[in-house]
Write a structure and sequence with these properties.
With about 90 residues, the protein is an all-alpha fold. Helix content is about 80%, strand content about 0%.
């Protein structure tokens, strides 16, 4: 068994776990559960992209997930702030 077979198996398992988390996004009892599940999927996609980058020996596939992780974090914060306040930005008057 080669190391590429191990990384391929890890990639398949991560993909299966992403599909399982999609259940929580669709059937989540609350909006916050759906937001958290979406954030978890984003994190798993970052790991999956790193694994794919290793399999294809492309170092650029490490830079792309880092950018995606930052966007995922900021997006989660924005959605959580919107859910909490009902608005994204309140101007000073």
């Amino acid at each position: 068994m080669e190391i590429t077979d191990v990384f391929l198996a890890v990639g398949i398992l991560i993909t299966i776990s992403i599909l399982m988390t999609m259940y929580r996004v669709i059937k989540g009892p609350t909006t916050l559960d759906r937001v958290m599940a979406t954030s978890v999927i984003g994190t798993k996609v970052v790991v999956l992209l790193v694994v794919i980058g290793y399999l294809f020996e492309r170092p650029i596939f490490v830079d792309i997930p880092l950018t995606y992780a930052m966007l995922n974090f900021v997006g989660t914060l924005i959605v959580a702030k919107y859910i909490e306040r009902g608005e994204l930005w309140k101007p000073y008057t």
